Amino acid sequence: MTAGSASSETATPITPPEPGVALRGNRSFRAYWADEAVTLAGTSVHGIALPVVAVLELDASPSQVSLLAAAETVPAFVLALPAGVAGDRCPKKRIMIGTDLAAAAVVAVVPVCWAAEVQSVPVLYAVAPLLGALTVLHQAASIAIVPEIVDRSHMHPANARIAGAFSLADMTGTYGGTLVVGLVGAVRAPWGNAASYLISAWCASRIRPSSRVRQQAAVRPGGVVVAIREGVGYVMRDPIQRPLVLSLAGHAYADGIVTTYVAYTLLTRLDSGSTGLGLVMGVTAAGGLAGAVLATRLVDRYGPARVMLAGFLAYALCGVPLLVARPGPVWLGVIALAGAVRTAAAVAAGTTQRSLRQQLCPPELRSRAQQTSVWLVTGVRPAAALSAGGIAAGVSVHAALLVGTALYLVPAGLLWSSPVRRLPAMPTPAPTPAHAPAKDDVHVR
């Protein structure tokens, strides 16, 4: 069974744009990549500065800090589905520019209020959810716009490069943010974040989406609830989209249980200290770059089904060292290496499933389909943390890690029992009739 036939039951066939230039010659993709990279760099500074301002400058209590953290994450769940509707109904490029400009103004509130001597924890309570909401809207558009600027034949390499940017930001962002905060102070650091959003908006303005794809993505009129129901219904009925999304949600639940106590286990049972913890986290994040580099080659050689199944299985197996480790530098090295392999497997599998979903989804549903996945993943994470706490309280922390590691196998089982495991290769564009490309179309020979 091919990818196209598997999805044909529910997906409207897409007339793909004509074969495009390589990614290195695609100016729109370069502008998009720069937009995302600059945003990530600025966000890393904000992620360090905001809690430092709260704790060290405003003497926030532990409960206030926890509320601040919750205020940053709640919009991802509450607004995920409406953001998908906005991404499908409004020009994605305009959403990206608008959210970047608005985010620059929001983060500038912190240093402005400090200069006016009116800074307080309630101000941070307002900034955190506003920035979280803008991030949700931005990501809903930025993920769904990729098929409008990249030819289908280059979709997977494009997503691999995007994942590489995220992995690099994850590896260096915390250290870079710490350096900036140390040099200019936590109160002034948000100015750098505001500048990054302005640069990001400029980069987004240089993106030229394909006019043909935009014309295909005409959305039927109707209320927001109806539009949300249409997007969720499409994902849950489609024989390819449904197992892909449910496997991601299952993986997020298992990972939420394990990650709740990874740092705790390293610092307590394994006596890693802060240096050992930093080493493990840094090496683990570096594996994402390897996964991004190898993802396309692995899919070309083994096919998308095998890469995704192997990725989920490798992720589960690489969690075993944490369960059996003993204190000492050798075991810390083993855990770090296993973490790097696990992250590489996750990135390879993740870029593959995203590329599949983008290529098989009708243009008018891309943003809503993507945000359905985001909504499910963000929704299970709080439940996973509560489950981890319940298991730890009732049995032990080690039992929670054991349960989470075992649950890593569930997503592989979901894919194995679905039509996804019969996908021999990534979808290929069907021949299209000759026609003159639009002036702003990047897909030219």
Automatic annotation (TrEMBL):
It is a multi-pass membrane protein. Residues 1-13 have a biased composition (Polar residues). Pfam families: MFS_1 (PF07690). It comes from the Bacteria. PANTHER family: INTEGRAL MEMBRANE EFFLUX PROTEIN-RELATED, MAJOR FACILITATOR SUPERFAMILY ASSOCIATED DOMAIN-CONTAINING PROTEIN. Keywords: Cell membrane, Membrane, Transmembrane, Transmembrane helix. Residues 1-20 are annotated as: Disordered. It is found in: Cell membrane. It comes from Streptomyces eurythermus. This is MFS transporter. The chain crosses the membrane at residues 65-85, 97-117, 123-146, 244-264, 276-295, 307-324, 330-352, 399-416. CDD domains: MFS_MefA_like.
